Structure formats: structure tokens, C-alpha cells
Amino acid sequence: MLISRRHLLRRLGGGAVVSAAIPLIRESSFAGTRESVRATPHGGPIRLNMNENAYGPSERVTATMRASLSLVNRYPDTAGALVGEIAGLHGVKPEQVVVGCGSTEILRLAVATFLGRGEKLVVASPTFDPITDYARRAGAEVATVPLTKQYAHDLDAMLAQADASTGLVYLCNPNNPTGSLTPRQDLEIFIRKLPPTTRVLIDEAYHHYAGTSSAYASFIDRPVDDRRVVVTRTLSKIYGLAGLRLGYAVAATAPAHQLSSMRSPMNVNVLALRGGVTALYESEYVSLCVRRNADDRQEFYNQANARMLRVIDSHTNFVMLNTGGPAEAAIDHLRKHNILVAPPIPSMTKYIRVSLGKPHEMREFWRVWDLMPPHTMEM
Ligand SMILES: Cc1ncc(COP(=O)(O)O)c(C=O)c1O
Q1: Best mutation site among 236, 239, 244, 269 for ligand 1 pocket (most ligand atoms within 8 Å of CB)
Q2: Which of 310, 137, 280, 124 is nearest to 202 (CA)?
Q3: Residue 324 DSSP label
């Protein structure tokens, strides 16, 4: 069904006119566009594109980092203290922990460590894909396996791709960009069936958001006795520290040592070393962020529902929204109105991935949504 924009706006009671009084800035600093955009109070667009925690870190973390500013003329200490804290938090030995300049660095280390030229990486599609770029650049083969209709990893099809040449399997759970889960039980069976030389990297970047689902259990909190499994986490999501660049892996001692030996020296900066330690123990703040995210996500569902738009059930801080038309048109429209969402996903042509922002940012998202030209909204 096609619904006219005016009709939709009347039904929703929205459609305020864009204020002309807000100054324009050039968007040349944002990849892929030359459009002008309206400045926000912070001088940039509304960023609903990177799955950050819009609320930022806790006060205590900010205070720790502020107090650490006096140290920035010195090279950072070794990461020993931070590693010790991470080990303590998870009840593992420090030798099992590898810290990275974001968990993306750990993905790069995993490719460098476990994949040689001509070896194979098996991944889902769509998923968080920097690891596929790293693998291709290392001369490895990449086998991509579409998600199931329920947006879980298609583990049978992934298993069919796994042979003696498969150095690494990447599992993102919950998955980015779909926000969906692959059941824990299925993952365990899958891992047991993999060739003995195949390593498994489980990316738990969105772990905290999935916590209450019965289909989910972290492979750090409930480990399997398997030396091939490496689990990554990041401080970029729930902890609100994406700009700080801090992530880590937990693995058996031998693979952790292999990964660690590929790191650049001092790959974690002095503010991250200090702020990270404080952040990891901010359990009340983490719980607050989980609750707030659940509320913000529910409000997003409500708004989508009111417009008869479908979403994929999300276990993360972002939502895949079926626009009913070409994703590019919606992305373009939003960008012209100063709102960034994720780039198009080739295999999901009608969906856009929207990171949850603060309530006023999401109100602006829906206000702008309601200004969308009708041809982009077949329903
Ligand atoms: C699944 C997943 N893993 C890792 C990352 C990157 O984390 P970091 O900021 O720690 O490099 C992201 C970022 O969006 C992600 O979605």
C-alpha cells in the first residue's frame, strides 16, 4: 500500500517544518556525501550510525580520565593492571586476557594469528565485517553464509563450509547489523563439530544488551572447555567509551599468548588504561544503561508500530527497521536532515540500521521520518 506523506503526517499529528534559523555546516567531514547539514548543538549531525552508547560513560569514569590527563606526556604503563582487573572480573588468569585498541584490533590480531594465505575464514552475512577485509588482505579465502530466516547464524551451512583449510570461524552474537541472537545450545553443538584445527572467535560486543534472553549465555561467563574458542568484548558499547578505543579478548593461555605477541607495543593509551579499570566495575551504571536502552528500544518499537513499520527483534542498542522501500532513499533523506544511520546493507535492501540515541534525538528521527517523500514508503 502506498500512503501519502500528507495523509500519514495528519494521522501521526507530526510534520513540523524544519527551522531555517539553525546554521548550516558542510558535511564533507562525513564519509560518502557532499550534502550540507544542519548543525546540532555539538556541531555535528545526530549520529545513529555507529551503535554507540549515546549517554556516554559514568561520572566516575569521566572523573578518572580527567584526573589522568596529567599523565599524557608519559608513555602508558604496561597494561598489567587493566589485564589483572579484567581477569578478576571474569575469574580467569591474567595470561588468558589480551587487550586491544578496541576489539577491532583483536579481530585483526586473530586474522594475523590464525589465518594464513590460502586458508579460510567462515562468516555469516550480513555481519560485522571488518574481519572479512582483514582476512582478504591477508590472502585468506572468505566463505560467507547467509543468516537463517530468523536472522540466526546458519550453523549447518557454516559447518558445511568448514574443512581442514578453515583457520577461523567468526560468530557475532548478538549479531550486528541484525541485532539477532543465535541460540547458545546450537553454538555449542556447532563448535564441537568443527575441525580440530579451526579456531572460533565469538564477538560479544553487545553482550550486556542480550543478558536477559534465555537463548543467550556468554562464552566468557559460561565457558566451554575448548581451547579453540576466543571471545571478544568491547568498552565501546554499554560502557560508553567508543572514542577511547578499548577492547579485549579472553581465551585459553596458549592462543591468548599468540594473539598478544601480535599486538603493537603500548596499544592501549593512558586514559584507556585508567578509565577502563574504573568502567569495568561500574556495575550499577551498566545496569542503568541496560534498562535505559530497553526503554529506548521499546519506544522505538512503539513509534515504528504507529507507522505500521516492521522491525527485527533486537537484543542490542540498535534496531533494523524495514523502510518498506529502498534503504538508500531513506538513508539519503535522513542524511539530508542531519541524521546519520548505518550505510546500506547489500543483502537487506529495504532495511536500515538505526542506533538508539537519546530521546530528543529519536524524536527528531521520527519527525524527519514523517517528512519522507511518499515514494520511499511503500507499505
Ligand atoms: C560486533 C562488533 N564488534 C566489534 C565492534 C567494534 O568494537 P571496538 O570499538 O571495540 O573496536 C563493533 C562496533 O560496532 C561491533 O558491532
Answers
A1: 236
A2: 124
A3: S
Going along the chain from its start, the domains and CATH numbers come out as 5-44+284-376 (3.90.1150.10), 59-282 (3.40.640.10)
What whole-number distance in Å separates Cα of residue 239 and Cα of residue 257?
Answer: 26
- pLDDT single digits (tens) 93-148: 999 999 999 999 999 999 999 999 999 999 999 999 999 999 999 999 999 999 99
Residue in 75, 76, 96 with CA at minimum distance from that of residue 86: 96
Q: What is the pLDDT of residues 205-240, one digit of tens each?
A: 999 999 778 899 999 999 999 999 999 999 999 999
Task: Tell which residue, 124, 217, 215, has the closest CA to residue 162.
Answer: 124
Tell me if 99 CB under 6 Å of ligand 1.
no
CB of 267 within 6 A of ligand 1: the answer is no
Beta-bridge partners for 143: 122
> Which residue type occupies 175?
N
Contact 166, 120 (CB under 8 A): yes
pTM higher than 0.85 for the full model?
Answer: yes
Taking each continuous run of H as one helix and of E as one strand, the counts in the chain are 13, 14
Q: Grid cell 565457558 — which residue?
A: 223
The three state secondary structure string of 243-290 is: HHCCEEEECCHHHHHHHHHCCCCCCCCHHHHHHHHHHHCCHHHHHHHH
Cβ of 318 below 6 Å from ligand 1:
no
317 lines ligand 1 (CB under 6 A): no
Q: Give the three-class secondary structure for 28.
A: coil
Q: Which amino acid is at 55?
A: Y
Count of CA atoms in the C-beta half-sphere (13 A) of 344: 15
